[in-house]
Amino acid sequence: MSYMQRITATILTIGDELLIGQVIDTNGAWLGQVLNNIGVWVDKRVVVGDTKDGILGALHEATTSSDIIIITGGLGPTQDDLTKPLLNEYFGGKLILHEPSLEIIKGIFERTHRPILPVNIKQAEVPDVCTVLLNSRGTAPGMQFERDGKLYFSLPGVPFEMKGLTETYVLKAIQQKFALGEVLHRTMTTMGLGESFVAQRIADIEDRLPDSIKLAYLPGHQAVRLRLTEVLEPGASSFIDHYFHQIKERLSEILVTDQDISLPECIASLLLKYNKRVTTAESCTGGYLAAQLTALSGASAYIHGSVVSYDNAVKENLLQVPKEVLDTKGAVSEEVVIQMAKQVRILMGADYSMAVSGILGPDGGTDYKPVGTVWIAVASAHEVVTKLCHFRYDRLHNREATSLQAFNLLRKLIEAENPLPEFPG
Amino acid sequence: MSYMQRITATILTIGDELLIGQVIDTNGAWLGQVLNNIGVWVDKRVVVGDTKDGILGALHEATTSSDIIIITGGLGPTQDDLTKPLLNEYFGGKLILHEPSLEIIKGIFERTHRPILPVNIKQAEVPDVCTVLLNSRGTAPGMQFERDGKLYFSLPGVPFEMKGLTETYVLKAIQQKFALGEVLHRTMTTMGLGESFVAQRIADIEDRLPDSIKLAYLPGHQAVRLRLTEVLEPGASSFIDHYFHQIKERLSEILVTDQDISLPECIASLLLKYNKRVTTAESCTGGYLAAQLTALSGASAYIHGSVVSYDNAVKENLLQVPKEVLDTKGAVSEEVVIQMAKQVRILMGADYSMAVSGILGPDGGTDYKPVGTVWIAVASAHEVVTKLCHFRYDRLHNREATSLQAFNLLRKLIEAENPLPEFPG
Q1: Which of A270, B160, B207, B365 could be disulfide-bonded to B370 (CB atoms 3.0-4.6 Å)?
Q2: Concatenated DSSP letters for B366-418?
């Protein structure tokens, strides 16, 4: 792909709880992103349990294949007797007490008014052959080792602590040690066509891509994301925007966003851009739409409130859906979501509203309205647009699909009503 | 740990999007759980990119260490030219068209009124040396191979499809092929003490655990989960409940639940047990509490509706929080959450309510109320209980911490008010 030497990394995660599936690993994805952004190629992620053989085997293997080895987990106070002594032995050091780390640990216990325990003091011990990465966010210090031109980092598994150490020390140490090429990404999201149809539509453009640019499809339930990646040697010209633009033009009618952002982020940026506010009236999604919008920092600029109207009584009392409509059409009907969308927009004094009512399953379906039947309405002061969906997933995937369809319907309405469309086409 | 031969599995995931961190791998955790439940020990999870060398290397390695190799991903219509031919070559077969799979693919395209493409027809091709696992949920058939006493499965990466094939075929094939020991788990959740303090408190019990039982800590931001795992040989007696009970007794005052369930699930089971309903009035969490409760199947029995009152105007108009209180005490205050909790309970006709108002960050903090300041109130017809929290994480972790504290406060109130406490102590 490039004549330049690729700097590669293995992310090695330690923890039985990950193998047994009680915890979902989000550290690996986050590390993959930030490493990739500075031009490091993660070529492998490995999860092993809390066993000496497993960890040593994975460490040996990573050493033969990668320039950088990042180990997360295994440093908690109750696991302390495995990973750290093992690394100490692997790199031929001896454990010594690290005073600055001990100070941090003492401070944490003082702030929480708890007595410090021997296992916590032991967390301040580090191999004398490592560079200590001071962890201001927790009790386990990070460690950096170097051998045969390779860098090794051992970081705690708690995401908040791992991220702090990575941002403060790890990325800088890597950039100092290696001459990294630039890696550029361009990502777009489409909705409305399956992966193979999108691929067919841009096949000729894909055939013309130079070796330095790679196209990947990231299919989801309702959306297909496309990502171009260009590995750029120092001084070389970039062609990624040229091809990205061609693909965008070709897919303009199904294009949702040409940024690497989620649909809620896309809605937030449109609302901020046009200085508008949104609200939601949610039956089956039960607050999930509002929660996604308010999860974003700065949400108070574009959402003031929402109503979860899971039960008909709430639809009737708070959202003025007439009892006759509920009785004759049913809660999952176009009439009901139209009234929910209209009324919540007025109730919350918003410019736009989204309303959903549906049957996400596994129970509650009928022959006439099977599980997966969802009505969506989006409203402005000028119009109401509705959509009927039939999903065939399980409860949580049906909720996710509903959410994506609702956000996309709102996006189209906002773009149609505002003078400067975000996207050409 | 056991004299019985342990049956081990490697989960091998294929996909650049996972290495680059654009997608979080949830398949591995799910597979880890279901395999563990039938007595298979996952000893390694590996993620590699869409490269022949990467996949082959990981496959060789998995073959030397595990009895079962489960491969997910790499079977999408646009990736079809890599993983399947590679497996075909690895197992020495030739690709043939599999008619039943083609029928399913045709059916999917007919239902969505789209023309079938050559790449989709190609998805129905399988190596003639595999057992085809018919995928009723998508276009990529699963494949099962066997060699030298080991089982190999290749499954699509889309979670919904992967789960369907695993439940229908994979688990049964494994149980037929291997004599599996029983693996028992007991999990409890505690809140209020850090991992090392919990460990210290039960150190003597841990020292007495037999070799067949292992204790693991699964620490989180606010909660510490403990898991006992027992590997049971056929005919052997189980001691796991004996030790689990001892630990429960010792930790009774910080025990949240002795089931392997989340806090929202714990709340749901209490509400169902006592036939009560809950509602939420959410400022900073913006619908996240309601969304977690309604994500559970059967939620309509215990939640009828909720209000997101992100802005003061909504707190004032819909939840009757007096303007003077908002002006003098501020939105993040005990007085405000008390009024929110009281009023939303009445508005929604619920037995219990939760209200939260806080500053999750990164902006909005002051010297007097820094980022991480959160007031929580829970109310019943008889009383209101409040709690002031100071979190020091980022926005999403602060939201998660708020949510856990709010659910736990509600749990205590429900248990205190109802005649039959769920837990002893």
Answers
A1: B365
A2: -SSS-TTEEEEEEE-SS-EEEEEEE--S-HHHHHHHHHHHHHHHHHHHHHHHS
CA distances to A210, A227, A266, B166, B383 from A245, rounded to whole Å, are 15, 12, 19, 41, 61
DSSP A168: I
Summarize pLDDT for B364-392 with one digit per residue, the tens: 999 999 999 999 999 999 999 999 999 98
Distance CA A124, CA B370 (A): 29
Q: Using the beta-carbon criterion (under 8 Å), do B307 and A309 form an inter-chain contact?
A: no
Per-residue model confidence (pLDDT) at position B126: 95
> In the structure encoding, which two tokens stand for residue B100, read together?
């039943």
pLDDT > 60? residue B425: no
Mutation site, A22, A30, A395, interface B, largest B CB count within 10 A: A22
Domains and CATH numbers, chain B: 8-177 (3.40.980.10), 182-257 (3.30.70.2860), 263-417 (3.90.950.20)
The answer to whether residues B381 and B200 touch, using CB atoms and an 8 Å cutoff, is: no
What is residue B80's predicted lDDT score, i.e. its pLDDT? Answer: 57
Q: How far is B19 from chain A (nearest CA, A)?
A: 6
| Higher-pLDDT residue of A358, A119 | A358
Nearest to B396 among A58, A158, A295 (CB): A295
Q: Which of B44, B76, B298 sits opposite A219 (nearest CB)?
A: B76
DSSP assignment string, A281-322: EESTTTTHHHHHHHTSTTGGGTEEEEEEE-SHHHHHHTT---
List CB contacts (< 8 A) between A394 and chain B: 160
* Contact status of A159 with chain B (Cβ, < 8 Å): yes
How many angstroms separate the most distant Cα atoms in chain A? 79
In B93-233, which ranges are continuous DSSP H helix?
99-111, 118-122, 159-165, 171-177, 195-201, 203-208
Among B197, B286, B299, beta carbon nearest to A310: B299
Mean pLDDT score, A274-290:
98
pLDDT value at residue B1: 38
pLDDT at B421 over 80: no
Q: Any idea how long chain A is?
A: 425
Cβ atoms A216, A227 nearer than 8 A: yes
pLDDT, chain B, mean: 92
Residue A39: pLDDT band (50, 70, 90) is confident
Q: Which residues on chain A are in Cβ contact (under 8 Å) with B304?
A: 310-311, 313-314
What pLDDT is stored for residue A392 in this prediction?
A: 85
Structure confidence at residue A77 (pLDDT): 77
* Selection from B265, B286, B264, B280 nearest residue B395 by Cα: B286
Q: What phi and psi values does residue A251 have, to the nearest 5 degrees?
A: -105, 15
Q: Which residues pair with B216 in a beta bridge?
A: B227
Above 50 in pLDDT, residue A1? no
**CA distances for B83 relative to A275, A410, B77, angstroms:** 48, 39, 11
Please tell me the pTM assigned to this model: 0.86
* Percentage with pLDDT > 90 across chain A: 75
Residue A217 touches chain B, beta carbons under 8 Å: yes
Question: Reduced to 3 states, what is the DSSP secondary structure of residue A222?
Answer: coil
